[in-house]
Amino acid sequence: MEINKAKSLIDLINHRKGEGVCRFGALINKWREKNPEARIEFEQIDFSGMDFKGANLSGANLSGTNLFMAKLHRANLSKANLTKVDLSGADLSEVDLRKANLKEANLSWTKCNKTNFSDANLFNAHFFNAKLVETIFSKANCEKTTFREANLQKVIFEETNLVETIFFKANCEETNFRGANLQKAIFEETNLDEVNFNEANLLDVRFDEKIDLSGITLRGAQINFPTLEKYIEDLRKVVLIT
Q1: Measured in whole angstroms, how far is the alpha carbon of residue 11 from the centre of its chain?
Q2: Rounded to whole angstroms, how far apart are CA atoms 41 and 60?
Q3: How many angstroms separate the CA atoms of 229 and 135, rounded?
Q4: Phi-psi bin for 207: left (phi > 0), alpha (psi -120 to 50), beta?
Q5: Is 50 exceeded by the pLDDT of residue 241?
Q6: pTM, 2 dp
Q7: Do 121 and 142 touch, CB atoms closer than 8 A?
């Protein structure tokens, strides 16, 4: 029964699309009001460029779906399955993605300002050149995730799993990594102005050879000095709050 209802929603979207309708947020929300128990199944469907602003897609199965350049501003995707979804170039600003599964998803070139990824699974996801200002990743799994050349200004990574995560050429100005596990993470050519590494695991992290650690807070952080032995002079300038 749920599969038939989900198919009816897909048919409705395709029908309205054929009529020239380009905004589907209100249509989906109205459908969910009439079918509160039905689960949305959009697996491996092409929704590239479509407008789902404000849509309630909480708990939906979107695995393998093409959402390239889609408009999802302020949509609810909490607990949704977005495994291997192509979201490149999409507008995800202010979207609720708490506890969503975005394993191996492509979020390159996305606009994710003030988006909430708390407790989400982002294992091996890609955020190349993404805009993530003031975004929340608290307690998310970002192991082996790529933030290459992304704007991460004022992002919150508190208690986040960032093992082997790549921040190459990223802007991490005023980013909060308090309590995060950054073991073997890569911070090469990265802007680390006013970064908070308090209580973080920085074992075997790769920094630039001439990293400027002035202004960075490291209270209670785990650091193995063999990794940072090249930066002893800079460590004298580190802000150590006791």
Answers
A1: 30
A2: 6
A3: 33
A4: beta
A5: no
A6: 0.88
A7: no
